[in-house]
Amino acid sequence: MATPYRLLLLLLSTSNLFLQLSSSATTNKIGVNYGTIADNLPPPSTVASFLKTQTTIDRIKLFDANPDILRAFANTNISVTVTVANSDIPSLTKLPSAQSWITTNILPFHPETAFNRIAVGNEILATSDKNLIAHILPAMKALHQALTLSNLTHIQVVSPNSLGILSSSEPPSAGSFRRGYDRAIFAPILDFHRQTKSPFMVNPYPFFGFSPSKPETLNYALFKPNGGVFDKATGINYTNMFDAQMDAVYSAMKKLGYDDVELVVGETGWPSLGDPDQPGVSLENAVSYNGNLIKHVNSGKGTPLMPNKTFETYIFSLFNENLKPTISERNYGLFKPDLTPVYDVGVFIQQHQQATGPAAMNPASGPEAMRPASGPMAMDPASGPTAMGPAGSPESSSSKKWCVPKINASEKALQANIDYVCSNGIDCGPIKNGGPCFKPDSLRSHAAYAMNAYYQQSGRHNADCDFGNTGVITNTDPGYGTCKYPYAATGSGQNVKKPDTDGGGSLKSATSNLRLYGFLSHLQFLICLCLCFL
Ligand SMILES: *[C@@H]1O[C@H](CO)[C@@H](O)[C@H](O)[C@H]1NC(C)=O
Ligand SMILES: *[C@@H]1O[C@H](CO)[C@@H](O)[C@H](O)[C@H]1NC(C)=O
Ligand SMILES: *[C@@H]1O[C@H](CO)[C@@H](O)[C@H](O)[C@H]1NC(C)=O
Ligand SMILES: *[C@@H]1O[C@H](CO)[C@@H](O)[C@H](O)[C@H]1NC(C)=O
Ligand SMILES: *[C@@H]1O[C@H](CO)[C@@H](O)[C@H](O)[C@H]1NC(C)=O
């Protein structure tokens, strides 16, 4: 028993040290993909001022060159990547047509709008369209030349790729480009990047890489504790799939002699909602992937084969887009169309969360200040565009307090909290099927409702939100749409039944049981972690 306990202390103190070091050395290189397949998004000017004034996001990537968006981002100093439509590629291989594209899409907005890149098409290799594929590099060269002639050499020309460009990616050292494309397509493109000092852009999606039949691969994809994947050729134990995917691309580049070309992550993300029973899709997993990804990228650690590299990374995506075909595709967004976060992965300039209660003990706040997501946007036409000012979320109020689950609360703990609260005199009708807070039908969302109801009813003491160290106090109203979270003003027990504190199984003693239970599972989790590192 003594050894794991000492290890536990060691682990706690080193991880704290690590968090302090990494947060002081933060170099933020996080951008978002601003997709617009939706009919309920706010006007581009609202989006521009929101990103500028409230978030640390300092770069966006568009899937087109929408002039309204380009105009809206003028004078924001937010870098913009525009995309040439796939179908335009064959016509852009000659200099005059490339110049004309620049004249139409860049010059009218330059220099007020800070262009940093032109993406030539999107994942063209995945289209298998030989005509498009044959014209990528000529179009990239022509656009680069046109930019040079306009003295705009700081604007880089790239072409984003899915990881379908690799024939093999496991283990990472075996990464290689698809045969037939390696020397014919990728070597010349990488040579262009080397000549023009521009990066190779890839779209790694661990979401598509885990295997539903092997639950441990999900933790590997989500940056959660896992057994690791050992690469015999290099002796490296990979602890997350993102690093493995990036290193597989690096290995493929190295085989062609281009390991000096920089890599940029054009897209990566995780949906927060999917079809019923779609494997791996949940709000909790989206928070874990994107939150950990941002921390990982900004830590400056790089990957095993690319140590100390901070990859510029564009999260997919900025908004939930309600006209996408499937539920999961509609739910990749960090924000809802009304600019409230689907969840907070730590991109706000001022944390919505006040340093009170349990959260104050956690210097590495990260994605703590999350809120439960609302249901699918398509079902919520009322939350259309809102022209909100630059001053904080309309729902937040620093004096009010709600209780929600911590980001790392386990599903077991969430369920235990729901069971406890709902069997102790709190009205859980709103999270039952048909109730206003039933959707999204997730454990986390239901637990948030229940935990808050208990916290409010018990008088909003910090201890009432402890739940065995699985609850956290927030200043942001977690309610959404018709789901109103109780906020019991002091002295008014309005439609909240007072618990029978004299009866058997009083709230207080049950809470301390719960606290003990939480502490034990916490201990268990850390010991497992230690054993993994042994
Ligand atoms: C614009 O952003 C760049 C980094 O992208 C920074 O160096 C520069 O100081 C910013 N300029 C203004 C006026 O904010
Ligand atoms: C580009 O810069 C050169 C040298 O500064 C200048 O002579 C030329 O006129 C510029 N061209 C354009 C299109 O601005
Ligand atoms: C890599 O991790 C696996 C599983 O945890 C372990 O069996 C193996 O010994 C590790 N190898 C190295 C070199 O750390
Ligand atoms: C990475 O950074 C660490 C710490 O600053 C340093 O010791 C190490 O030499 C660096 N590695 C490379 C390959 O630059
Ligand atoms: C969850 O995070 C908090 C910090 O906010 C930490 O104190 C606690 O130990 C974590 N719990 C688990 C189970 O990892």
Automatic annotation (TrEMBL):
The keyword Membrane applies. One of its GO terms (biological process) is carbohydrate metabolic process. GO terms for molecular function: glucan endo-1,3-beta-D-glucosidase activity. It is found in: Cell membrane. It is an enzyme of class 3 (hydrolase). Residues 1-24 form the signal peptide. Residues 356-401 are annotated as: Disordered. Residues 401-485 form the X8 domain. One of its GO terms (cellular component) is side of membrane. It is a lipid-anchor; GPI-anchor. This is glucan endo-1,3-beta-D-glucosidase. It comes from Pisum sativum.
